[in-house]
Amino acid sequence: MNFRLSSLIAACVLVSVLQASAQGLVGIQNYSADFSQDQPWTWSITGRGGYDNLNYSEPGFDSFESTYVQGGVGATFTEADQTTPWSTALDLGAIQYLDDTAGYDQTFYNARVSFNISHQMSQRLRFSDNFYTTYGAQPNIAMGGTTNLFNGQYLYGFNNFNVSYAWSQRFSTTTSYTVDGIRYDDEIISASEDRLSHLVAQQFSYAVSKRTSLNVEYRYRTTRFQNSNGRDFSSQFALAGVDHAWSERFSGSFRAGAEFFKSDRVSNTAPYAEVAMNYAVARQTQARWFGSVAFDGAELQNYDSRRSLRTGVNLSHQITKKFGVNAGAQYSYSTFDGSGPVVDVAEHSLMLSAGVNYQILENLAVDASYNYSILMSDDAVREFQRNNVSLGLTASF
Fold first, then answer.
1. Residue 31 pLDDT > 70
2. Pick from 202, 201, 204, 219: which is nearest to 170 by CA?
3. Predicted confidence band at 346 (pLDDT cuts at 50, 70, 90)?
4. Where are the domains of the chain?
5. What distance in Å separates the CA atoms of residue 176 and residue 164, rounded to the nearest whole number?
6. Alpha-carbon distances of 227 from 4, 139, 189, 199, 301, rounded to whole Å
7. Residue 34 pLDDT level (bands cut at 50, 70, 90)
8. Nearest C-alpha neighbor of 184 from the set 143, 154, 157
9. Cβ contacts of residue 303 below 8 Å, gap of 6+?
């Protein structure tokens, strides 16, 4: 049961930031970083304390509650050069649970590294690369790579490289290659969840106007499980969509079509869709929304396939120069399809967060946050609820 509970760690504020800035968008193949303005090297040190409570529906799994302390350091940088813009971010942290957790670990670690770069070779040719990796234990509905349960620490990595060429003022093509994978520390979870995926995509885009482009796209994705046989699968995608910028600060991307899924167990065809929107009003208000409907590789185990709808929104607003608020919601609905003695299962997962922050001094801020998670499933063993509150202090320089 160690591995089930070990992920109670989530550095709540850090997790919210990660989901807003990167993970919820990895499914959008046109994803690129925000290079709208320069940001010099900014370093931060954070201290945090809080209370965590997890309740399982089934009595066979012990409920857990504990106070904790947490520390972390971070760094960010953005160079908004017109020819070669790039940005990078690093976060490192650890959390220590203070109350008696007999049978469970009490110290956990979080780390994140991201790097984004784009280079304009000529007026027609552009290269870009988006890299993201994280080591932690908090499940992430937005990312989709992890399980919905608290299954211990894992390493997740993602990299997308793409080349765009403008054949004319209106017509362009983008070729991309994406690799992503996940590995769990716990041997039991690793045996069924560790996997590596490769995706190649070819997109054709026609600019209807300066703000709107129509797209058709083909993708091929293959996933191989590292420690188990009979679970590998591949998907082909035939998609159409639109990219539109309502303004310099409000843009969106949408794709829809069919996914042709084939595994060692079953072949199936189903609708596929993904959407991502980003809205920024100067530095006062930020809003991001993502959504996807697709076959899912997480937690397949003895099931033939899994379909998931994942969506989430993250909002932040600076009420005054010193006082700000933020909120987020992430939801997923999954159906697990089995055969023979394996019974189909449907489940809902929801994560809610809310927080406030206050700038005490120019380089010193305090924040408070509340996070709520719930998983409802036809399989009662998987059901749980979690509440987490925290108070933190961050110094930046």
1. no
2. 204
3. very high
4. 2-396
5. 9
6. 20, 21, 10, 21, 12
7. low
8. 154
9. 336, 337, 338, 342, 345
Q: What is the pLDDT of residues 80-127, one digit of tens each?
A: 998 999 999 999 999 998 987 655 678 889 999 999 999 999 999 999
- 289, 313 contact by CB (below 8 A): yes
DSSP per-residue string spanning 208-239: SSSSEEEEEEEEEEEEEESS-SS--EEEEEEE
Number of alpha carbons in the 13 Å side-chain half-sphere of residue 293: 11
- Amino acid, single-letter form, for residue 196: L
Please state, as a whole number, how many other Cβ atoms lie within 10 Å of the Cβ of residue 338: 15
Single-letter residue type at 6: S
**Whole-number pLDDT of residue 146:** 72
Task: Give every CB contact of residue 130 below 8 A, 6+ residues apart in sequence.
Answer: 31, 32, 33, 115, 116, 158, 159, 160
Question: Residue 9 in contact with residue 108, Cβ under 8 Å?
Answer: yes
The pTM for the full model equals 0.84
The answer, yes or no, to whether residue 328 has pLDDT greater than 70, is yes
pLDDT at res. 22 = 33
Phi-psi region at 347: left, alpha or beta (left = phi > 0; alpha = psi -120 to 50): beta
How many CB atoms are closer than 10 A to CB 394?
20
Q: What residues form DSSP beta bridges with 152?
A: none
**What's the confidence (pLDDT) of residue 25?**
41
- Rounded to whole angstroms, how far apart are CA atoms 313 and 293? 16
Check the CA dihedral 144-145-148-153 and report its sign.
Answer: negative
CATH 2.40.160 fits domain 2-396: yes
